[in-house]
Amino acid sequence: MSNSTTKKVRIALVGLRFGGAFAPIYHAHPDVEHVAICDTNEELLNQYGDKYGFERRYTNLDDILKSDEYDAVHLVPYMESFNIYGEEASVEWHMEDGPLTVFKTAVQQGERGRKSDVTLVKAPSRPDLLPEELAYHITNQAILDPNNPHQSVLQGNGHHGSHPHLVHEFLRSIVEERKPAIDAVTAANWTAAGICAHESAMQGGKEVIIPSFE
């Protein structure tokens, strides 16, 4: 694939079940030349592409990598929905075209189970740090799905406004030829904690050492 950073960035996004929340942000970013979408589910691919106006469509990642038409590929192979691990929690991962794994909440009997106090922390979404085209995804909201409050924001503004910031930092790192703030090592360290927590939970709380990727 081309490594050129002298012109606008050409992006391919793979995996639309969760990645669909990112595609409109890339499309709106002033540093992007064009965006391709990819999903092995051709029906989903075409429905999404038709709805949001994406002409470049693929069902195979290899075709993207061999094309030399893209500067970066954003892989989004899953979407997750989870609560705090423990005897009163549940975890679910939905793998793209893979098995659906659901860990049911344990039924509390008597004093069984641990109680947890939860403190909610609201972080500012800071649209002022974004290009105007991306800030729009934070400052303008719409009800996408009344049955899913998590999606009651403008398409593209997931996780309370973090998606536009992640996309912007990733694209600017390509244009400026530098490491992004969340680089591969940082991402691996953050992800490893969740994987090890899962392994611990599946073994009844057994200690699992989190590896370091430094």
Characterize the structure shown.
This protein has 214 residues and is α/β, with parallel strands linked by helices. It has seven helices and seven strands; from the N terminus they run βααβαβαββββααα. The chain has helices spanning 16-19, 23-28, 42-52, 61-67, 132-139, 162-175, 184-202; strands at residues 9-14, 32-38, 56-58, 72-75, 78-82, 91-95, 100-103. The strands form two sheets. The protein has a four-stranded parallel beta sheet with strand order 3-2-1-4, with helices on both faces. It has a three-stranded antiparallel beta sheet with strand order 5-6-7. The relative contact order is 0.14.
Brief write-up:
The protein is of the alpha/beta class and 214 residues long. It has helices spanning 16-19, 23-28, 42-52, 61-67, 132-139, 162-175, 184-202; strands spanning 9-14, 32-38, 56-58, 72-75, 78-82, 91-95, 100-103. Helices cover 32% and strands 16% of the residues.
Q: What sequence of helices (H) and strands (E) makes up the elements?
A: EHHEHEHEEEEHHH
Number of strands: 7
Distance linking N and C termini: 27 Å
- DSSP strand (E) fraction? 15-25%
pLDDT averaged residue by residue: 76
Strand arrangement across the biggest beta sheet = 3-2-1-4
Domain Gfo/Idh/MocA-like oxidoreductase N-terminal: 9-74
Protein name: Gfo/Idh/MocA-like oxidoreductase N-terminal domain-containing protein
